[in-house]
Amino acid sequence: MNAVGHDPTITVQRAWQLASDVEQALSVDDLLSRSDFVSFHVPLTDETRHMINDQRVRLMRKGAVLLNFSRDGIIDDKAVVAALDAGHLYAYVCDFPSNLLKDHPRCITLPHLGASTREAEENCAVMVADQVREWLENGNVTNAVNFPEIFLPRNGGHRVAVVNSNVPNMVGQISTDLGAAGININDMLNRSRGDIAVTLLDLDKEPSKDVVAQLSSIAGVLSVRCLGCTKDQ
Ligand SMILES: NC(=O)c1ccc[n+]([C@@H]2O[C@H](COP(=O)([O-])OP(=O)(O)OC[C@H]3O[C@@H](n4cnc5c(N)ncnc54)[C@H](O)[C@@H]3O)[C@@H](O)[C@H]2O)c1
After folding, report:
1. What SS3 class is residue 196?
2. 205 Cα to the center of ligand 1, angstroms
């Protein structure tokens, strides 16, 4: 199988995870005109709702098969059934059963369990363990529902992870206290989401217990962790 994909906001990190022979389609229309099997893996948003509609179905190859295991609403089922009845599409497979689809001879509808394969369960478990480990060891946050995404690679130094309220002058106060303790910041990243911000700092010296206590006492600082520090924190 030759794989062709389209993702308008793909990250560099995601792109590195793809096999090198996956081809890039420049648009959804481009992808549809080049594919015999089209599978959707997108969230349901205003941009993705009815991504397959009457117009788009006509761009698909004759005899193509459509698969949707992402969200109900991404495919306009009426448009697809019309294309199946007209003999333009060969089959539609999804995990969103409906009265329109359930008895159609060219539709296969499954319960909404697309992600519940043995492989997906195992991948989820590994992903969760990796993400919790990143948070505990490096302060990095991925896929949290209530924290900002943040990723600062470790390039030496002593990592301090601060969780603080998303209000002005937090980073200023943290760096002032570190400067007063004679500690230099080698690298720093601050990300916020709603009321919460996370600040990751790589320091040239390990902060003492007193410096960590000083940072913790700043109004608005919710937690301070010195990661991998050897001094008794
Ligand atoms: N069937 C199930 O049991 C089941 C289970 C879990 C999730 N889902 C659904 O599957 C979807 C995909 O899951 P995932 O783990 O691959 O999610 P993901 O967040 O890893 O990937 C979604 C991708 O969609 C891309 N995207 C967003 N808007 C787009 C657009 N307008 N055009 C093209 N690409 C766009 C994003 O850049 C991202 O790479 C989820 O959003 C969820 O709706 C279904």
Report:
1. strand
2. 42
Find the 146 Cα to ligand 1 centroid distance in Å. Answer: 19
How far does residue 40's CA lie from ligand 1's centre (Å)?
8
Same domain for 94 and 136: no
**What pLDDT was estimated at residue 11?**
86
How far apart CA 8 and CA 45 sit, in angstroms, is 14
In the block, tokens 């010195």 appear at 226
pLDDT confidence of residue 229: 82
For residue 64, the model assigns a pLDDT of 98
What residues in the chain have per-residue pLDDT under 50? Answer: none
**Residues 64-83, buried b or exposed e (16+ Cβ, 10 A)?**
bbbbbbbbeebbbbebbbeb
Look at the pTM and tell me if it is higher than 0.85. no
| Pair 43, 85 in one domain | yes
Q: Could you tell me the residue range of the domain that residue 219 belongs to? A: 129-227
Residue 123 lies in a domain: no
Pocket of ligand 1 (CB under 6 A): 6-10, 41-44, 47-48, 69-71, 95, 112-115
The pLDDT tens digits for 121-168 are: 999 999 999 999 999 999 999 989 999 999 999 988 899 999 999 999
**H-run or E-run covering 65:** strand 64-68
Atom 43 (ligand 1) nearest CA: 43
Instruction: Answer yes or no: is 124 within a domain.
Output: no
